[in-house]
């Protein structure tokens, strides 16, 4: 079963939303909000869309506001991936 | 008062580079390099070579925006730097941004349309929603520099840069401290080029030295280009009070008119724009030291422009130049870059030449500056722009 790891998420964020400082996503960011990391709602829509494509799953746009941090995003998306498996 | 200039153009990626190119009559026109254009009817263009968005645009913004916005952001940063104006030190609602755009984000849009047709709707990026939009450059400049007063975009094709600075002047008169204005365009991808072909005004010439020859017996359309210029318009007293390093000139007069529909018996409205801009500046025609022409290089449009100029200034009555022959027509960036060039001409007392013209049409009775720059003690110059669809604008700049 495919699983979205924190490293996957960071990699996709970097491509989807760009980055000003390569170190922004380093360290313990699990509970830092995407907004504080500099990724706005549009960047998150783009990120989720790329995850859908890469993991062959469907993630409704409505999920985005309910995933404020990387930890919540990983939990939410991985539980959907497990349910679909 | 204009206190800062920025340029990203085929003739240079800085103001100084651009100015030295146009004074030397060094045309930047060459074969299209962004893609293989060998099967397209138009193959010559003015390209901004060597521009690396990653070096001049914040990393977050690069994937969210089109090349035209990258060029606009870079030019705006140059202009603010040139003005030594730090927006962070000023009240954010007392600064605005008014740019011109003509094509929007065509290169970005082409990429997304390709993804749509090749892979389906799920593959279209979220940023398409903001990247294509005409106001994207204005918005990104506003966000980047924290300039949150009145912001807008003018979409009047090649007249856009003049309409934008007219609006900037209006905003400053209304109480704004500073406005970033100007324009860029970048539409040299296949989709952008094909969209331009529909105007019927693109040159099919393949010799870069002759493909764009306005007011010439061989005039047969224009060469497209990308890039443009940005300018900082400040309230004059505030600029003086802070001892702004550069005081390039003022927007003494501005007017815009609209042509009658095709087939109308009424004459084109460019002459009226010139007269109204001079009246707005309170200047008689003989005070104007040079005219920066629109230079469509479509014989009928050249005739209209020459007729309008001669109608106000008399035959051979004023030096006329078109340095855009070295960049191609930049659409929203065209008149904006002409404003920058005209301000440098005022500063240095020299009129840059027109390139590519070998056999001027005698009946046009224009005193066309070509072959080399012409020294002139300039106090006031006139910049003209005509946008596809009937737009005319005229700006008088004064030292």
Report on this model:
The complex is a heterodimer of chains A (about 80) and B (about 400). With about 80 residues, chain A is an all-alpha fold. Chain A contains 4 helices and no strands. In chain A, helix 1 (about 5-15) packs across helix 3. The mean pLDDT of chain A is about 90. With about 400 residues, chain B is of the alpha/beta class. Chain B is built from 12 helices and 15 strands. In chain B, helix 3 crosses helix 6 (about 135-145), helix 7 packs across helix 12 and helix 10 packs parallel to helix 11 (about 300-315). The chains are: A mainly alpha (about 80), B alpha/beta (about 400). The interface between A and B is medium-sized, with 15 and 14 residues.
Strand content of chain B: 15-25%
Number of helices of chain B: 12
**Largest sheet data of chain B:** 6 strands, mixed
From the spread of the alpha carbons, the general shape of chain A counts as: globular
> How helical, in percent, are the residues of chain A?
40-55%
Poorly predicted runs of chain A are none
Assign an overall shape of chain B: globular
Order of secondary-structure elements of chain B? EHEEHHEHHHEHEHEHEHEHEHEEEEE
Continuous helix count of chain A: 4
Radius of gyration of chain B, rounded? 20 Å
Q: Extract low-pLDDT stretches of chain B.
A: none
Going by helix content, strand content and strand pairing, the class of chain B is: alpha/beta
User: Using CB atoms under 8 Å apart, which protein chain pair has the greatest interface?
Assistant: A-B, 15 and 14 residues
Helix content of chain B: 25-40%
Give me the count of strands of chain B.
Answer: 15
Q: Give the class of chain A from helix and strand content and strand pairing.
A: mainly alpha
Give the neighbour order of strands across the main sheet of chain B: 8-15-14-9-10-12
Order of helices and strands of chain A: HHHH
Q: Quick one: how many beta strands of chain A?
A: 0
């Amino acid at each position: 079963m495919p699983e979205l790891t924190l490293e996957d998420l960071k990699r996709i964020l970097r491509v989807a939303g760009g980055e000003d400082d390569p170190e922004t996503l380093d360290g313990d960011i699990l509970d830092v909000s995407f907004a504080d990391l500099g990724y706005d709602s549009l960047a998150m829509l783009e990120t989720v869309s790329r995850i859908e494509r890469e993991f062959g799953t469907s993630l409704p746009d409505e999920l985005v506001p309910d995933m404020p941090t990387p930890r919540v995003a990983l939990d939410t998306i991985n539980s959907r991936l497990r349910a679909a498996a | 008062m204009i206190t800062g200039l920025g340029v990203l153009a085929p003739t240079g990626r800085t103001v100084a580079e651009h100015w030295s190119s146009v004074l030397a009559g060094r045309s930047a026109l060459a074969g299209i390099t962004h893609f293989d254009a060998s099967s397209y009817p138009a193959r010559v263009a003015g390209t901004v070579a060597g521009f690396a968005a990653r070096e001049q645009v914040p990393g977050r913004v690069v994937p969210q925006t089109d090349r035209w916005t990258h060029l606009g952001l870079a030019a705006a940063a140059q202009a603010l730097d040139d003005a030594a104006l730090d927006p962070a030190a000023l009240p954010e609602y007392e600064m605005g941004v008014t740019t011109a755009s003509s094509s929007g984000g065509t290169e970005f849009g082409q990429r997304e349309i390709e993804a749509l047709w090749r892979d389906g709707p799920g593959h279209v990026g979220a940023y398409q929603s903001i990247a294509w939009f005409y106001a994207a450059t204005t918005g990104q400049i506003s966000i980047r520099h924290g300039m949150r007063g009145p912001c807008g975009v003018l979409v009047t094709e090649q007249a856009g840069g003049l309409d934008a600075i007219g609006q900037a002047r209006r905003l400053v008169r209304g109480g704004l401290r500073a406005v970033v204005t100007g324009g860029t365009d970048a539409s040299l991808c296949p989709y952008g080029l094909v969209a331009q072909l529909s105007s019927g005004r693109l040159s099919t010439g393949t010799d870069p030295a002759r493909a764009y020859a306005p007011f010439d017996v061989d005039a047969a359309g224009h060469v497209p280009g990308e890039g443009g210029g940005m300018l900082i318009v400040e309230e004059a007293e505030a600029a003086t009070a802070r001892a702004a390093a550069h005081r390039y000139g003022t927007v003494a007069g501005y007017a815009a008119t609209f042509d009658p529909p095709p087939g109308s018996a009424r004459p084109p409205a460019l002459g009226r724009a010139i007269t109204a801009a001079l009246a707005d500046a309170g200047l008689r025609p003989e005070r104007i030291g040079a005219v920066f022409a629109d230079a469509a290089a479509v014989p009928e449009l050249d005739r209209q422009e020459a007729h309008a100029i001669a109608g106000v200034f008399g035959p051979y009555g004023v030096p006329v130049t078109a340095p855009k022959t070295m960049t191609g027509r930049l659409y929203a960036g065209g008149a904006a870059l002409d404003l920058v060039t005209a301000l440098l001409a005022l500063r240095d007392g020299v009129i840059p030449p027109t390139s590519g013209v070998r056999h001027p049409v005698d009946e046009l009775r224009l005193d066309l500056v070509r072959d080399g720059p012409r020294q002139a003690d300039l106090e006031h110059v006139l910049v003209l722009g005509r946008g596809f669809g009937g737009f005319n604008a005229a700006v008088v700049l004064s030292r």
